[in-house]
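Researcher: Please predict.
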Amino acid sequence: MAAFFYYLFVKPVSLLPLWLTYIVSDISCFIIYRVVGYRKKVVTSNLTNSFPNMSKEEIKEIRKNFYSHFTDFLFESFRNFSITKEETLARFKVVNPEVLKPFADANRSVIIVGGHYNNWEMLAVGIDHYIEHQSVAIYHKLGNKFIDGKVLSSRCQFGLKLISRPEVKEFFAQENQLTATIFGSDQSPSIAKKVYWTRFLNQDTPVMFGVEKFAKEKDYPVVYGGITKVKRGYYEFKLEVLFDEPLKAAYGEITEAHTKRLEQQIIEDPQYWLWTHKRWKRKRKPEELNQAKTVEDQLADLKH
């Protein structure tokens, strides 16, 4: 069934001219938002809780704009199955790749952290054209083997390397290349004890601790990567060094910094974040209060 859907719908759609792609996207947006109401309650709840001072009219406007962007994102992602290098370079640009140059010259790998904001699939096909580091991204395997293989091929077609979550620890233990490893910091943590709790978009939020853990373990600089939408279908990626000496950061400082930076970007243009997920379904328990940790505690955390 998955192969049937891919060859009958996804692949033909990926070959459409860009202008026609957006006509299909607009029609799909009407169906998904107005007719089906796909996850509309979840989106509305997430927006209302994140922006309690906004009026219902403001929330509705953001919600409408989100669904328009969301369907564009879906069809732009389909397009990546047939995208060329020339089109990738025209529609996606890293505006300041020179930020990573000093680290490359010093043979220092880095961690790039961002969120599911704007079009991260364009980042997957575009980033390796612009930086000296080998780009690597953490991904979650899809349940359908056929679709998983197609998505892997699409994302990796221009040089990106993908590693699944269970392979992350082994990757960092054996990693000896010059790499820029990309983390999506806004995914819900799958392991309850390996999280850091903080305030994010006005709510108690568990954040994955992997960025801070591996940055300190490997002494890798931490760089925030923010995607902005220039116009429909065109994106820019800006790099911003958060920590060039991560070992000097206090416990939680790195996690707080990249979480707040993502929050800032979302607040500036909220319609471009992925609001359809139940990001706050897990509530903080009393025993999960963050406390200052000793150096010994931090080192113990890094070993697990």
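Model: Residues 291-296 have pLDDT under 50 and may be disordered.
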